[in-house]
Amino acid sequence: MSSAMGSPTNVFWHECAVGKGERQKLVNQQGCVVWITGLSGSGKSTLACSLNRELHSRGKLSYVLDGDNLRHGLNKNLGFSPEDRTENIRRVGEVGKLFADAGLICIASLISPYRKDRDACRALMTDANFIEVFMNIPLEVCERRDTKGLYKLARAGKIKGFTGIDDPYEPPLNCEIKIEQKNGVCPTPCDMAAQVVSYLDGNGFLHA
Fold first, then answer.
1. Contact call for residues 100 and 2 (beta carbons, < 8 A)
2. Which among 57, 119, 157, 159 would be 20 to 30 A from 125, CA to CA?
3. Count H helices, E strands: the chain?
4. Contacts of 124 (CB under 8 A, 6+ apart)
């Protein structure tokens, strides 16, 4: 039996004969989660797709968990209250953990505004394979882009609890990678992907 909320009872973990190490050898890479966080319009999805393409071109297996896409399925029953945001991130963290255990490079792209929620996802991982990427792009730049028209709606009061306008974004304190402007110019998608790939390669994630 199990309760509707909280930890289940009388449920036991079952180990399989094929372990993470064997799966990683099969695909010649180290499973990990690349967690891309930042404001709406900061370039999270752009980086995720560019990174996915670059890894694919190198023969590396990766998968993108996009925050908006997940709300069409896995998280379609969640809203944007603080509680629902926390549950949204928790679910993605658990899925990312499974992808990493399978030996894949999981690219999670979500605003994930609350530091405690991102830290909880990091704590799910049993080894140092959670790579936090902070899209440190100024609010005014993100708002100027406004590709989805959400900032305009938020400024008009038509969207409540919008991150960066009337709901806070808590930047990472110790992220592994920071993407930011240089001399007021945002990096290109290829340059952003190259920065992440360089970290992955240098830390042994691109080989078993």
1. no
2. 57
3. 8, 5
4. 93, 94, 96, 97, 130
Contact call for residues 146 and 152 (beta carbons, < 8 A):
yes
| Residues known to be catalytic | 112
**What's the one-letter identity of residue 84?**
D
For residue range 134-152, what is the model confidence (pLDDT) as tens digits? 999 999 999 999 989 999 9
Q: For residue 97, is pLDDT > 70?
A: yes
Q: What pLDDT, on a 0 to 100 scale, did the predictor assign at position 128?
A: 87
Which residues lie closer than 8 Å to 68 by C-beta, 6 or more apart?
A: 45
Residue with tokens 């709901």: 167
pLDDT value at 12 more than 90: no
Section 98-110 average pLDDT: 97
Q: From residue 111, how far is each of 15, 85, 114, 179, 207 by CA, in Å? A: 34, 10, 9, 14, 29
**Burial level of 61, CB count in 10 A (0-12/13-18/19+)?**
middle
Q: Helix, strand or coil for residue 172?
A: coil
